[in-house]
Each structure stands twice: as structure tokens, then as C-alpha cells.
Amino acid sequence: MTNQTSSASFSTPEAFICLRCGNCCHGEGGIVLNDSDVHRLCNHLDLDLASFAAVYMESVNGKNRLRTNEQGWCIFFEQGCAVHPAKPAVCQAWPFFRGNMVDANSWLMAQDACPGINNETGHQEFVAQGNSYLQDLDLEPSTATSPNALNRST
């Protein structure tokens, strides 16, 4: 008797699938912008830098970040991301932030806030898929003015 098994039956589940719950869009100060983000958002919104900055951006401790509305949501959150095709790198990278990648306990805590993280894959698979995803995005590395959460070095 021959055992015939489809390789598809052993496919690895996704470590993260965005459920668009918006939990990661809530909280002041978390969306730090790098220069590429600002340029991409200005183009997407058809705004010059001064107009964009006046409405959507603030500078805190030398870093530019998106403003939040009065309820603490990202200024672009409206039943989902209003700038999804041009969203900032830090938003694109979630939940594959450095802390969640290098520390299994951080990964476990992130699951409390993010229902899209699949704990069944395990931390090692989460890291493997995260590294692949971040490389595919070709995000610029952290700089003095960009988010440290995107720094993939250990």
C-alpha cells in the first residue's frame, strides 16, 4: 500500500492575517513617520509637504508622527485605514516589530491586542514569516528620525 500525501495538506498557516479591527490604530504617538512615508502620503493625498504637515503631522522629540483624533485614533482611521495604499512603514510592518521578533514574551503580549496574530504557528515560525515579509516590503532601516521598531538587527 502506497501512502500518497499532498504537499498542500502540510502547508504552514499564516502567522498573521490582518482582521482590520483597528486595535493597532489606537493610541497616541505610535505612528512615527520617516521621509519616505511623508512623501508617499503627500503624493497619495495630493498635498504639498506644508499642507500635509499642518493637518496630519506633529513633531515630538525630533521625530515626525501622525496626529491622532480626539478619541486617540490615528487621524486616518475611518472604519479602516483611509490611506491604506500609502500607509506608513510602521503600519505596514505591524506586527513584525523588532520586539515581537526577538522576544517571544513580547510576541505573546502582542496577541492580547491583535487578534490577527496566529499563536498556533509558534514564535519561531512568526519570526521566519516576519523576516520574509519585511524583506519583501523593502522597508528602509531605522534612522535617528524613523521608527526603531523596524530595526531588524539584534
TrEMBL record:
Domain of life: Bacteria
One Pfam family linked to the record: CxxCxxCC
Annotated InterPro entries: Puta_zinc/iron-chelating_dom (IPR005358)
Protein name (database record): Zinc-or iron-chelating domain-containing protein
Species annotation: Desulfonatronum thiosulfatophilum
